[in-house]
Write a structure and sequence with these properties.
About 40% of the residues lie in helices and about 15% in strands. Helix 2 packs across helix 4, helix 9 crosses helix 10 and helix 10 crosses helix 12.
Length: about 400
């Protein structure tokens, strides 16, 4: 028996159990624990085997956003902007603060950012927090050490009021607003945070319409333009910063924040001062070129000749007809079709090829239908009749 040990109050201490302890169980090593344990020790919280919140989020960024992050910023002065930005951010896994603080360890996916300060200051804060998180995480195997990965913004979406020359950051003050004439300084300030192929999406009214252009849904949807618009100015600034694969999308008219289908895209590859492209003409169907070409081919297939003197007039008439018909199909598609469960106009700037394909399929079904009064065959018949085209000898 072990000796009895007495204390100052003379009480007897219970005997110590000398039985053999049960074997200690160990957790099998898994890929997840191996990856965790390979992270630098400084990423762990002091005295803990758990990653710090910043390192955990850094790993999340590498997993979910290896090619760059999405960011959504909204004007807090209008509840509509906040609602649409939060919906978009949730669907796009945008990076933002869990609550109000933009700091390492306080970020999450699926969050929009309220415009509490100017865009340069806001994205500067976010860049610092994202960099700190990524630096504390483990770079995945096989990723080039020079790759920026999730340290750069791939898609930047702004939800706010706009005009052809202005973008309102905060309805309560004008000090942080963006002007087309001076937006270059802001883009320069955030340039290091933007990927070379960054896609800037302006969910704002009129920002892709030129200063001298009148608001027109048909023209704003089907024709290019807006070289001197806010969207054009941002594209020009991105070119100056070497973002030669960047794009900027914006609305040409006043309408719903995200479901406005009057969209133009401005590409850095076109160079400074270039006009924006009609989303429909570039990503759905080139009605300006394909419309006349296909109708003239249909006329020729029926053995009719088109005199050179009448060609331009026929082409103009075909374009006018096709423009209206394709516009109607595009409008209908935005009411009846969806991509990833979202309205087409909302998704068009971030998934232009996929959205364009949906509308194009709907259009070609109509265009190639011999019985459709607005189709290619019917239009060829009307041109033959209207212009008295004769059969070739």
């Amino acid at each position: 028996m072990p000796p009895t040990v007495t204390t100052t109050n003379r009480t007897t201490r219970p005997a110590v159990n000398r039985t053999t302890p049960a074997p200690r169980t160990t957790t099998p090593t898994t890929a997840a624990t191996a990856a965790r344990d390979s992270v630098r020790g400084s990423t762990y919280e002091a005295g803990s085997r758990h990653l710090s919140p910043a390192a955990e989020f850094g790993n999340t960024l590498w997993t979910n956003c290896p090619g760059g992050i999405a960011v959504a910023v909204y004007d807090t002065g209008d509840p509509e902007f906040g609602a649409r930005a939060k919906e978009w951010a949730a669907g796009m896994n945008a990076v933002g603060p869990k609550a109000k603080t933009i700091a390492a360890g306080e970020l999450a996916l699926g969050k929009a950012i309220p415009a509490s300060k100017g865009l340069a200051g806001l994205l500067g804060d976010l860049q610092g927090a994202v960099n700190a998180s990524v630096d504390k995480a483990k770079r995945p195997d096989g990723v080039d050490a020079s790759a920026a990965g999730p340290k750069q913004v791939k898609t930047l979406a702004l939800f706010m009021h706009g005009t052809p020359s202005w973008l309102g950051m905060d309805a309560s003050t004008s000090k942080d607003d963006l002007q087309a004439s001076s937006v270059g300084a802001t883009i320069k300030g955030i340039s290091s945070f933007l990927a070379g192929d960054v896609n800037v999406v302006l969910y704002a009214c009129g920002v892709a319409r030129g200063e001298s252009e009148k608001q027109d849904w048909y023209a704003g949807t089907m024709h290019g333009g807006g070289a001197d618009s806010m969207a054009g100015a941002i594209r020009d600034a991105l070119v100056d910063e070497g973002k030669d694969k960047a794009t900027v999308f914006g609305h040409t008219t006043s309408g719903h924040t995200t479901r406005n289908f009057a969209i133009r895209g401005f590409e850095a590859a076109d160079g400074k001062g270039a006009r924006g492209h009609s989303f429909v003409a570039q990503h759905v169907w080139s009605w300006w070129e394909l419309g006349p070409a296909e109708v003239l081919a249909e006329i020729a297939s029926r053995g009719h000749a088109v005199p050179d003197a009448r060609r331009a007039k026929i082409e103009g008439a075909v374009r006018a007809s096709v423009r209206m018909s394709l516009y109607a199909v595009n409008s209908s598609a935005n009411s009846t079709k969806f991509y990833q469960g979202k309205n087409l106009a909302e998704m068009a700037p971030v998934h232009p090829k996929e959205v364009g394909a949906i509308v194009r399929e709907m259009w070609l079904k109509k265009w190639n239908d011999a019985a459709d009064p607005k189709g290619k065959a019917a239009l060829a018949s009307s041109m033959i009749k209207a212009h008295g085209l004769k059969k070739s000898a």
